[in-house]
Amino acid sequence: MRPLIPLLLLSTAVAAHAQTDDFARCLDGLRTTARTSGVSEATFRTHTEALQPNMGVVGNLDAQPEFKTPIWDYLAFLVDDERVADGATRLKEHAEVLQRVQQRYGVDPATVVAVWGVESNFGQGFGRTPIVQSLATLSCFGRRQAYFRTEFLAALRILQAGHFAPERFTGSWAGAFGHTQFMPSTFERLAVDFDGDGRADLFDSAPDALASTANFLQRAGWSNQLPWGFEVKLPAGFSAAGEGRRTKRPSAEWRARGLRLVDGSSVPEGMSLGLLTPAGVQGPAFLVTRNFDALYSYNAAESYGLAIAHLADRLRGAGAFTTPWPTDDAGLSRADRREVQTLLLARGHDIGAVDGALGEKTRAAVRVEQERLGWEANGRAGQKLLKALRGG
Ligand code: CA
Question: Domains of the chain by range and CATH?
Fold first, then answer.
């Protein structure tokens, strides 16, 4: 195979060159749209000249964790004891602001803080990918170019208005930024100045970020008269065919079909509720109100909505879901993930730093260990692998 390597390198270089040309042509094509969208020629030039595409972000489009990860892994990571404890601290720290936010926008402190915790780990992870570069790349490559063009132009308008210094304007690979991980167009529509310094600052002001989150949820239809929903117990033999978050039915209908809350009490009256069974009827089931839809609209994934809802419940003192997930290999908290990584390091695997993020290197090491154990080498680390590694 060795003689092929120079050829491969050459073809990679040619491909990269063609990509750069395509990118330059694509950006040039966006100039006119930019001008009619309120982006000046000078702003456009300043932020796009010499800009290279970041092709890494295009690959991420098809590998979003909300869609690929089993829901029990996703929730074990996002709603772990550590995040509940951190959230409780934030609730105390920002009690006064959260109270005012609730009065103004009608969204309770636990919900607002839960969004904050899931979006940026309470401000500890904003993302370090340059936003203009990401959005310019996604405007020109991949499958959602129209959407990302709108966001790219919004990002340029934000810089043009001087909201943030260009070098500060970094975020997730998809262009979401700050405490609340707002997309640029969401920032333009919904970010608010709540600490009264005259600017909506989602990087350096927790009050602005908390109020902006509540403003988002209020505009998305949040009602302070409703819970997000509740876990329910399905009657034996229940079919969830045709049911879903959007298929709302009156409480009375669910009662008539034999659903009860997990503590055995009746489904509360007078609500319009959709049934969510994220892992099928054998797993936890939930009746959800339109408040869940408001959470959903933050990131367009039901698993995401459930993570926020569950974290908010945990912050109000609730425990884990009553019905277990239908798996014999439960997911890992961040502490568990760090322990897996530490144990992999001790076994001589080169996985980089122990950071609780199960990236490529960690998954490769997991596959090696799975093979050694005679398991399917799929790279997924759960409680079983943690136990096996602890056992030596
Ligand atoms: Ca402010």
Answer: 16-62+126-197 (1.10.8.350), 229-288 (no CATH), 334-390 (no CATH)
